[in-house]
Design brief:
alpha+beta, Nucleoside Triphosphate Pyrophosphohydrolase, four-stranded mixed β-sheet, 17% helix
Length: 149
């Protein structure tokens, strides 16, 4: 038994030429959420390998990691796991080839509420708000991105 479990999540910040960032709208664990693309680190993989695996799972295509952007620097209780601390790592990344998946025009509400539903959309860095994201660490990163615009 682990006394102090940690959950590590790894995310991609992908920007386009119009100064927009890619967001992921999802319905997972019976919860609607908007976050940055990415997911959970699995035992035996490094953070970059995790993000590349997540890109293949979510987008069906590969990404290139450009640079580290941010790692959680405050305590964050995990939302879905009792007695666990969340650590999130964000990398700036880009697609290695033109996008082959569908980009939604607006927030996808998922009226059918099927766990695992996911869609992607671009959001202007200039218009990005902490209210656009669901989770506290993503909100901090959104504010950091907004400061760059």
């Amino acid at each position: 038994m682990i006394d102090k479990p940690f959950i590590v999540r790894v995310y991609a910040l992908i920007f386009n030429e119009r100064k927009e960032v890619l967001l992921s709208d999802e319905y997972v664990l019976d919860t609607s959420m908007t976050k940055f693309p990415g997911g959970g680190l699995e035992f035996g993989e490094g953070t970059v390998d995790c993000l590349k695996r997540e890109a293949m799972e979510e987008f069906g295509q590969s990404i290139e990691i450009i640079s580290h952007f941010y790692t959680t620097d405050f305590f964050q209780q995990a939302m879905f796991y009792e007695n666990a601390q969340l650590i999130s790592i964000y990398y700036v990344a880009k697609f290695t080839e033109p996008i082959r998946f569908t980009i939604a025009e607006k927030l996808n509400i998922f009226p059918e509420k099927i766990n695992g539903s996911q869609s992607f959309r671009w959001k202007s860095m200039h218009e990005l708000s902490t209210d656009d994201l669901t989770f506290p660490i993503d909100k901090k990163v959104a504010a950091m991105i907004k400061d760059l615009s």
